[in-house]
Amino acid sequence: MNTAEPPTTLRVFRENSRRYPDRPQLIYFDTILTVRQVDELSDALAAALAAEGVGPGDRVAAFMQNMPHYVLTLLAVWKLGAILVPVNPMLRAAELEHHLNDCGAVVLVALDTLWRDVARDVVAATAVRRVITARGCGMQTRNDERVLADRTVEPATGVLEFETLLARYRGRAPRPHEPSPEDVAFLCYTSGTTGAPKGAMCSHRNVISVGRATCAVTAVGPHSTVLALAPLFHITGLMVQLVPALISCCPLVLSFRFHPGVMLDSIREHRPTFAVGPVTAYIGLLQNPGFTLSDFAAFDRVYSGGAPISPATARSFEERTGQQLLGAYGMTEATAATHLTPKGMRSPVDPTTGALAVGLPTPGTSVRIVDDDGNELPAGTAGEVVLSSPGVVSGYWNRPDATAATIRDGLLYSGDIGVVDEDGWLFLVDRKKDLINCSGFKVWPREVEDALYEHPAVLEAAVVGAPDRYRGETVKAFVSLKKPGSVDSAELAAFVRERLAAYKRPSEIQILGSLPKTSSGKILRRALRDSTTSLPTAALD
Ligand code: AMP
Q1: Ligand 1: residue whose CA is nearest its atom 5
Q2: What is the Cα–Cα distance from 168 to 410, expressed in whole angstroms?
């Protein structure tokens, strides 16, 4: 390997394992794994995967919650030069099938309950040739019934068990392999600028460059403790939590899935110093009975990213926690953060829109604001945010057309409309795309419309984001029917519930006589969106 090349995250981790073997790396309820243990267990898993024929460039899908098995899988996959494909554990069968087929995964590592309830029905229709199931309460962990209640999964035939493999391959390791900086480290699925989810190819170079820049601004280092508040399937969880903890050789506190009471207990017990997550997760913690100012006392930095925060929310957060809520902005195609707010700096508020700045560019990032013809606009003028950063991916997996539409000459056309002030602060004005942002979860309207169109009674469907006090936006659907009265909204809601992950399901489905259209017959989503400001949204489930 060329010595001028940057190291990979794996190389840094191996070096940490040699130099600081006894430092805690993963904390999961009452299990603590040291760096050496994480290295040895991921060696064993890598040997097991190698025995299954996994090699360089193969895709291994991880369908799990925030648990140690996730990190062991990631490292084992990297040790073989293979590619990790994080899959959102909220996905339903048809969505999972799409992801597995799109990336051509050969192995699926799944939480046992997700295997039983979701994956079992679809793997036969994919290239997956081996399934490994993991128990959430594995690693001798005490069962926290608030998040791990359903633990009676019968051992399935034809499926390998994670814990059994670790025991069987204990002390073994695959032949040493060093991924090259251009090799894909993970394929992270995003809604991007068109409907179908696409896998952004984050290379090892992207990962180490962004990981180091993130550590530099957030001051995550050997003395930090990182709280895994964001899910590890999302680029934020991977790149602003896990990778900084691996690079810095500091503990990462995992708590399965987000449950405000469990998360608060983790904070009280392990006193993390760093957190990043959507603002709704923080609201959930603050609303938990018994929350006090001292719960946040150990934090050095608290970041909010993925969705807008209002100046009022940032103010009340500070009053309740004694901590400044620092803004972060980024996207999957940039391998996470391109903008972070440095600690101690007050984010300015845009005088015209009232928006709070999302941050300053991270080291190595530069921003241009362009008009529809790609011409650069002066400071203070709104236009599309175009990013250049060491995290910009080379493209989407097997999607040259989508890549060309979003990434040109190494520049990422974000689809976000923003303004940069004279000092470099970025303010987001709007999204160019129609993406709905439900507390950081991105929902592409067409995907929800497609699910509605599958119902035989539906004539037309249109889906928009409706303002929501808690989530920022919620999904709202409008449909017209082939035969009036043939179906009601409750039945349609039940129909889409089977097909869509919970966060994509409409909070309201309104049946109209017909949908508003342009003269050329296109459904006018904008007119429907405008109407939602005056319509109440009611949760269906
Ligand atoms: P994802 O690829 O899921 O991380 O989504 C990226 C998108 O989330 C961006 O293109 C923005 O539209 C939105 N986003 C990220 N950070 C922020 C933020 N701080 N404020 C508002 N929107 C954000």
Answers
A1: 331
A2: 45
336 Cα–ligand 1 center, Å: 9
Positive or negative, the Cα torsion across 79, 81, 86, 87? negative
Q: How far is CA 482 from CA 241, 477, 485, 497, 512, in A?
A: 49, 16, 9, 21, 11
Supply the mean pLDDT for the chain.
89
Options 3.30.420.40, 2.60.40.10, 3.30.300.30, 3.20.20.105; CATH for 435-530 is: 3.30.300.30
Q: Under CATH, which number does the domain 1-180 receive? A: 3.40.50.980
Query: Which residue ranges make up each domain of the chain?
Result: 1-180, 435-530
Residue range 48-72: mean pLDDT, rounded? 97
**Residue 67 pLDDT class (50, 70, 90 cuts):** very high
Do the strands 226-227 and 274-277 form a parallel or antiparallel pair, or are they unpaired? parallel
Check pocket membership of 428 for ligand 1, CB cut-off 6 A. yes
What's the chain's length in residues? 541
Task: Decide: 406 in ligand 1 pocket, CB within 6 A.
Answer: no
Q: Closest ligand 1 atom to the C-alpha of 435?
A: 12
Q: Which residue has the higher pLDDT, 66 or 190?
A: 66
β-bridge partners, 331: 336
| The model's pTM | 0.86
Would you state the pLDDT for residue 540?
24
From the centroid of its chain, how far is CA 371? 29
Q: How far is the CA of 215 from the centre of ligand 1 (A)?
A: 20
Q: For ligand 1, what atom is nearest to the CA of residue 188?
A: 2
Q: Residue 261: its pLDDT value, please?
A: 94
- Among 425, 280, 441, 435, CA closest to 355: 425
Write a three-state SS string for 86-137: ECCCCCCHHHHHHHHHHHCCCEEEEEHHHHHHCHHHCHHHCCCCEEEEECCC
Q: Are 176 and 147 in contact (CB under 8 A)?
A: no
Ligand 1 atom 4 nearest Cα: 331
Instruction: Determine which residue's CA is closest to atom 7 belonging to ligand 1.
Output: 331
Pocket perturbation via mutation, ligand 1, pick of 238, 428, 503 by most ligand atoms within 8 A of CB: 428
Over the stretch 424-442, which tens digit does the pLDDT of each residue have? 999 987 666 677 888 888 7
